[in-house]
Design a protein that fits this description.
The chain is 40% helix and 23% strand. Helix 13 crosses helix 14 and helix 16 runs antiparallel to helix 17. The radius of gyration is 47 Å and the shape is rod-shaped. The termini are far apart.
């Protein structure tokens, strides 16, 4: 190969450098013949000056050069520019480089104007020639870049892919990586920085790489070489102490990577052992990840989930409410209906928050299946109801005892007088009327209790005073006989929206607890006080007594299921738990208990409504 002449390496692209015998550091200027807008790339130093000028003049002429590309500021690349400017002698000559290079190359006393690629959208259009510029920061200077000609698919790579060769060859052979690795290990600052540049280069469709140093690389060797370069450790030509620290830092980072991978593995194991379903979703991609519990709860496999969106597993009745929750940054857990793979609908407690994954916004949704809990809750309600029924049957027996005794006495008197034939018709009629009145009283009592145990199917507006009167019809008659004064004055008619029978059940439970405690503690001048008033838009009903209150250590547990201070034969521990569930979960109110000066006070608060006419 005759290195004394220009060598065409691609259509209208020429190597115009100079072969320096026994010099491993060969420098390579390139010339793109483009009529009166030709391009000279990395023209070199004064060592190559005469050879470069001579070769360009054999192709075209120096005056045809309109653009000089400087990929970085080193003297072996840019020192000859001022002398070439004199030969080119054009007012419109432009030095093409990065704006970060200009403050440095101007010290060569360049007089031409600059074409700063970062201010020109990283492109150059000159007639039919179109060049693209790709920045490769710190490889090996801050403003370094490479140039790509898309028609011939030639990459002018500056220092990248350069080599230091004792036995220089114009075109790279299979062993070129061995010749190039020393140069890159010493001149590229770090592997990460070098790989960043390589990642931008490897997406280009490259037929030929024309570096400033080393050998020209043909297509079949381009991408295997990039792969090898990515594994190369760089930044080694530094003083030994720093190099040792660098290697120690790299080792530490590797250990951290291993620890992070182990941590992620442990996190995944933790996720998969949770009973709570965790679903990660994206607005653009739908469901992108989940744990094993999600598959178990819903019945969908992970691949099936990955084809779905969150709303696909939400029942239609809950869809609008759930959609609103998706827009919130973070919401308290709420209860909705979800759908399993077999189409069955089940109750679930759902929570969620916004987060990031791989720097993209995601939604993390948690799901607890409430099916089993709801079944147990229903059993608890039934057990509490049965306990209340036992209490009520005792109250029925108490209220029937006197009328039954009266009927029995009347019947005995009538039988005696009839046997002695002294029964008069007027007396018979009077006594039968008394019996009839007693039976009607007993029938009315039974109607009250049947109404109490008949659950409401729909919510309605009801007067709180009416609920109190219904409760007192059930438990009230027993209070005077127990020496307990009832203090209640229905002054105002306040209405709330809910289930009157369930509200009455709660009130009966509170009154019964107060009565039992007053009796157990044998309180003198015992009383139970009921007050109804409005506060902050709520109707508040308070039940208080003078039984001395609850033990302080038990206050935080009074609403727990099965917690009771009564003897096992006297209570189930479900009364207050069920009462709180009815008021707060079924009717959206609050039930609160506390100690006052003389005893305990329980407050029911529900939003006040205007009754429908």
């Amino acid at each position: 190969m005759d290195f004394t002449r220009p060598i065409e390496i691609a259509n209208k692209i020429y190597w115009v450098g100079m072969y320096l015998e026994n010099d491993p550091f060969q420098c390579h200027p390139y010339f793109i013949e483009n009529g009166n807008e030709s391009v000279l790339i990395d023209p070199g130093s004064m060592l190559e000056f005469e050879a470069v000028v001579r070769k360009i003049n054999t192709i075209s002429s120096m005056s045809s050069v309109k653009y000089i590309i400087l990929h970085h500021q080193d003297p072996d690349l840019a020192a000859a520019v001022p002398e070439m400017e004199k030969l080119i002698n054009r007012d419109d000559l432009l030095v093409v480089t990065h704006s970060r290079m200009v403050p440095l190359v101007k010290h060569y006393m360049i007089t031409s104007d600059y074409y700063e690629i970062d201010k020109e959208e990283f492109k150059l259009h000159a007639g039919d020639l179109h060049l693209q510029f790709v920045t490769t920061p710190y490889c090996h200077s801050p403003g370094a870049f490479v140039s790509y000609e898309p028609v011939t698919k030639t990459l002018f790579s500056g220092d990248i892919f350069g080599g230091i060769e004792e036995s220089w060859e114009f075109y790279a052979k299979d062993d070129y990586f061995e010749k190039a690795k020393q140069f890159h290990a010493e001149y590229m600052p770090s592997r990460d920085i070098f790989n960043y540049a390589l990642s931008k280069i490897e997406v280009l469709d490259i037929n030929l790489i024309a570096p400033q140093h080393g050998s020209i690389i043909e297509k079949e060797r381009v991408y295997p070489l990039i792969k090898q370069m990515k594994e190369l450790e760089c930044g080694l030509y530094i003083e030994e102490g720093y190099n040792d620290q660098l290697i120690d830092t790299i080792d530490a980072l590797k250990k951290k990577d291993i620890a992070l991978l182990e941590s992620l593995s442990h996190f995944q194991i933790l996720m998969d052992t949770m009973h709570e379903a965790v679903i990660v979703s994206s607005d653009d991609k739908g469901i992108i990840d989940l744990n094993a519990a999600a598959e178990n709860i819903f019945g969908f496999s992970k691949p099936e989930f990955m084809q779905m969106r969150l709303l696909d597993i939400v029942d239609e009745a809950s869809a609008s409410f759930y959609t609103e929750s998706l827009t919130a940054e973070e919401v308290d857990s709420f209860e909705i209906e979800l759908i399993r793979q077999d189409g069955t609908v089940f109750p679930a407690l759902v929570g969620g928050r916004n987060s990031y994954r791989d720097n993209l916004p995601v939604r993390i949704t948690t799901v607890i299946d409430l099916s089993e809990l709801k079944e147990k809750e229903a059993l608890l309600f039934q057990k509490a109801k049965m306990a209340d029924m036992g209490e009520m049957i005792g109250n029925i027996a108490h209220q029937w005892r006197q009328p039954l005794s009266m009927i029995n006495m009347i019947v005995a008197v009538l039988k005696e007088k009839n046997a002695r034939a002294v029964l008069e018709s007027e007396e018979l009629g009077s006594k039968l009327t008394e019996v009839e009145n007693s039976i009607q009283y007993m029938s009315g009592t039974m109607d009250d209790f049947m109404s109490f145990f008949r659950p409401n199917k729909q919510k309605e507006d009801f007067c709180v005073c009416n609920a109190v009167e219904k409760a007192l019809e059930i438990i009230g008659p027993d209070l005077p006989e127990r020496g307990i004064e009832l203090q209640f004055e229905p002054k105002y008619e306040y209405y709330v929206h809910g289930y009157i029978n369930e509200y009455t059940q709660v009130l009966v439970s509170l009154l019964t607890n107060a009565k039992d405690l007053l009796i157990h503690r044998k309180v003198e001048s015992a009383y139970i006080k009921i007050e109804i008033f409005e506060k902050d838009g709520d109707v508040v009903l308070e039940v208080s007594d003078n039984a001395g209150g609850m033990k302080e250590e038990n206050l935080h547990r009074i609403f727990e299921p099965y917690f009771t201070t009564k003897h096992r034969s006297s209570g189930t521990g479900l009364g207050l738990y069920i009462s709180k569930m009815i008021i707060e979960n079924s009717m959206g109110g609050t039930l609160h208990g506390e100690n006052m000066k003389e005893g305990a006070k329980f407050s029911i608060a529900m939003e006040r409504v205007v009754p429908n006419e």
